[in-house]
Amino acid sequence: MYVDTMTIEQIKKEIESVMKNVCRKCADILGNKNYKRVCLKLDAEERHVFKRVDFSHNGIKYHIIPFVDGKHDYKKRGMNSVLFATFIWKGGLWAVLIADNLKPRSFYTPHFFDRFIERNKVAADGTLDIMTSFFIKNSISTFDDYKHGDYKDSVFVAFEDGVGFGTKFDGYVVFKTFVSEKMLFENQQKIYDDYSWKRELYILNKAV
């Protein structure tokens, strides 16, 4: 399949159409007994992120990041994971985070990660590794968006390292750029502070 000839909407539908196969592959990966041996040796609340596992299907690469939030979390919930996909589109590397409901909820343009690298002074080598680090810290940010005043037609999301700006379409979001917190205007800072509090509350509620 030649992804570059497709629209983002078509790519989204392609990802959705293979989710059952992708999930079976992920289940096989997470069932590896080596994970269990490591998890049972962890401290009660010691987060451990395992090496990312990559596989491809129809020109789209899928990346699963297994992790666990300590031995107690493993005994209660088993393995956790973050799933995202990447593809080359219009000459650039795009990413899409796949949410808990197995829907490709948020797409990230090459420009988004260019600005993320620039504004956080991240080493530019290994964009896929930078995406991995970003998604393991920001995988819950796609579950909600914030509409406020001037931003009612756009998406303004507080990530751990700054803010993503994007556009909401029918059932998904395309994040187009990233700014650090110190670059926000005063009215944007108020939105960021409010959303960050809600984000932290969401994390706490999810952990209970």
List keywords for this structure.
single chain, alpha+beta, nine-stranded mixed β-sheet, disordered C terminus
What secondary-structure arrangement, pairings included, does this model have?
Layout: H1 8-17, H2 19-30, H3 33-39, E1 47-49, E2 53-57, E3 60-69, H4 71-77, E4 80-89, E5 92-98, E6 104-108, H5 110-119, H6 127-138, E7 155-159, E8 162-169, E9 172-179, H7 186-207
Parallel strand pairs: 6-9
Antiparallel strand pairs: 1-3, 2-3, 3-4, 4-5, 5-6, 7-8, 8-9
Radius of gyration: 17 Å
* Biggest β-sheet strands, sense, barrel: 9 strands, mixed
Give the count of structural domains: 1
Helix content: 25-40%
As a percent range, the share of strand residues is 25-35%
Q: What spatial form do the alpha-carbon principal axes imply?
A: globular
Low-confidence stretches: 200-208
Which class best fits the helix and strand makeup? alpha+beta
Number of strands: 9
Order of SSEs, N→C?
A: HHHEEEHEEEHHEEEH
* Spatial separation of the terminal alpha carbons: 42 Å
Instruction: Output mean pLDDT.
Output: 81
Number of H/I helices: 7
Q: In words, what does this structure look like?
A:
The protein is an alpha+beta fold. It has one domain. The chain is built from seven helices and nine strands. Strands 1, 2, 3, 4, 5, 6, 7, 8 and 9 form a nine-stranded mixed beta sheet that branches. The model is unreliable at 200-208 (pLDDT under 50).
Summarize the structure.
This protein has 208 residues and is α+β, with helices and mostly antiparallel strands.
